[in-house]
TrEMBL record:
Key words of the record: Ribonucleoprotein, Ribosomal protein, RNA-binding, rRNA-binding
Superkingdom assignment: Bacteria
Cross-referenced InterPro entries: NA-bd_OB-fold, Ribosomal_uS17, Ribosomal_uS17_bact/chlr
GO molecular function: rRNA binding; structural constituent of ribosome
Membrane as UniProt keyword: no
Assembly and binders: Part of the 30S ribosomal subunit.
Protein's GO biological process: translation
Protein name: Small ribosomal subunit protein uS17
Length: 78
């Protein structure tokens, strides 16, 4: 099974080697036929503490690194 890759924005870099990434998805509501925006936060591993708040990054699934971290930062988006 391939690993998922998501694109989001760094919302926190307070912890060592960890960033919090907010990923937004858009979809059409099945009944209302209205476009809905939902966001979810993921904790991602950042080995060199290279990413700061506001950076756009891509994250990829990985084996659990801690209790809450199951993602790692792949690259920064241009």
């Amino acid at each position: 099974m391939p690993k998922r890759i998501l694109t989001g924005t760094v919302t926190s870099d307070a912890n060592a080697q960890t960033v919090t990434v907010s990923v937004e998805r858009r979809f059409t509501h099945p009944v209302l036929k209205k476009t809905i925006r939902k966001s979810k936060k993921y904790r991602a591993h950042d080995e060199n503490n290279a990413y700061k708040v506001g950076d756009s990054v891509r994250i990829i699934e990985c084996a659990p690194k801690s209790k809450t971290k199951r993602w790692e930062v792949l690259t920064a988006e241009a």
